[in-house]
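@here heads up, posting the sequence + SMILES for the NAP run so it's all in one place. Ping me if the SMILES looks off, I pulled it from an old spreadsheet.
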Amino acid sequence: MQNAFGNPQQVLLLGGTSDIGLAIVHAFDRSALRRVVLACREVAKGEAKAQELRSDSLQVDVVEFHAEAVASTQAAIDAIADSVGDIDVAIVAFAQLGDSTVTTTDAAAAAALAVVDFGAAVAATVAVGNRMRAQGHGSIVVLSSVAGERVRMANPVYGGAKAGLDGFAQGYGDAIAADGVHVMIVRPGFVHSQMTTGKDAAPFATTPDAVAKIVVAGLRSRRRMVWAPKILRPVFSALRHVPGPLWRRLPLS
Ligand SMILES: NC(=O)c1ccc[n+]([C@@H]2O[C@H](COP(=O)([O-])OP(=O)(O)OC[C@H]3O[C@@H](n4cnc5c(N)ncnc54)[C@H](OP(=O)(O)O)[C@@H]3O)[C@@H](O)[C@H]2O)c1
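bot reply: prediction finished. Complex structure tokens:
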């Protein structure tokens, strides 16, 4: 359960080595936090991240989790929840950018990326949502992206998957709100992380820590959606209305 001040005690990070996800975990009030589960595809990599978090008062477990194995997602989440008890906050942070030159030409590669970034994220959100509905409380943080607000020709499979995930999370959040579960969508712009290493920064580029601050504040006020940084909301309100032929010529697209 969240403590009396509304700070989470038990947190599940799906994509347990995600720079943004870990920054969010680090940003929670450490005096409240009791247990964190890092669900990772590479346990050794997750273990190194767990060491940076562990303290006498904070237990950090690393469990193996392969997001694309959607047939076993519910069982994986159930196993975690059975061992931890109530999950106050779950962060759906896993995703891959993919190589757009491959995913726009290789149908199987395109589908595989879409499975991780959309299908698996939907499965994980529903699986966690089922547990939170049963416990009667909890928040699910869904890492969407501005890439889904106006899908760019530079990476249409990733952007399309984020557009789908964002839309799903809006409707699903509305569907389960009455059961006491809060779904918060996060729309970051370019964030300096493992995912973007070696890529040219986009305008309004930010850091995982700055995103994390916005997420923690959003959870406290039970926001439905947050943008990181906030300026991207008006920027994308304008960009989404740019006519297609002009959008195609913009360096952003
Ligand atoms: N960075 C940005 O500019 C940016 C902008 C907007 C939105 N986002 C979104 O924010 C989220 C976190 O991104 P990030 O910047 O923190 O990137 P990151 O550090 O690369 O984190 C991505 C995570 O996903 C995990 N992952 C990938 N495929 C997986 C699979 N099949 N099964 C399980 N885990 C898998 C990665 O594991 P490994 O460590 O093993 O690779 C890693 O933990 C993502 O959803 C991303 O789309 C990022």
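MO: The longest strand covers residues 181-188.
MO: One more: The chain has a mean pLDDT of 96.
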